[in-house]
Specification:
Strand order of the largest sheet: 4-3-5-8
Strand content: 25-35%
Radius of gyration: 22 Å
Order of helices and strands: EEEEEEEEE
Number of helices: 0
Shape: elongated
């Protein structure tokens, strides 16, 4: 917001960065929402976490959510109150700890363009675990054109049964 008095030779309309002779400038934080859209997919699971297929930990920057999973736990958890800052062009390591079952698919995505869709290019990586409570490290670089502001990190640990996908898939109902 700018309220200025225009002197001779000063830009009209008001320029947000010009050093005017008189006036005030104020900045405010704004969050852009998706106009009432449905937001990101929220997958479910038929068997849930009963067989030990769950995420037991996520570590990235200041996010340190370990020992968070469990048998008979919910199939979806909203941990968006936990966040960390990432920088465009920088490399990071995300550590995911799998649950009790030894052979699960672990995967992670960041919605880098903040459109509430986890796209193929936003997959940070995935791996098949071979032991219970296995730490899986996924190394990734934040794209230089990543949208600035708050977005989502999606982490999944799933067991794929016929005819389900053989990858973690950010939205499939396993």
């Amino acid at each position: 917001v700018r309220g200025v008095f225009l002197n001779t030779g000063e830009p009209d309309p008001a320029d947000p960065c010009f050093n005017y002779g008189y006036g005030e400038t104020e900045d405010y934080g704004i969050t852009i929402t998706n106009n009432g859209g449905s937001g990101p997919c929220i997958p479910t699971s038929l068997a849930g976490t009963d067989d030990g297929d769950f995420v037991d930990g996520v570590q990235l920057g200041s996010i340190d959510n370990t020992g968070s999973g469990g048998v008979a736990g919910p199939t979806y958890n909203d941990y968006t109150a936990q966040s960390t800052d990432l920088t465009r062009g920088e490399e990071y390591v995300l550590t995911i700890t799998s649950g009790e079952y030894d052979t699960d698919i672990v995967g992670a995505w960041i919605d880098f363009n903040a459109n509430d869709v986890f796209e193929v290019g936003e997959l940070l990586g995935e791996a098949v675990t071979s032991t219970s409570f296995e730490n899986v490290d996924l190394t990734f670089t934040v794209p230089n054109d990543a949208a600035l502001g708050t977005t989502l990190l999606r982490v999944r640990c799933v067991f794929s049964d016929d005819p389900e996908p053989t990858n973690a898939d950010p939205c499939f109902n396993f």
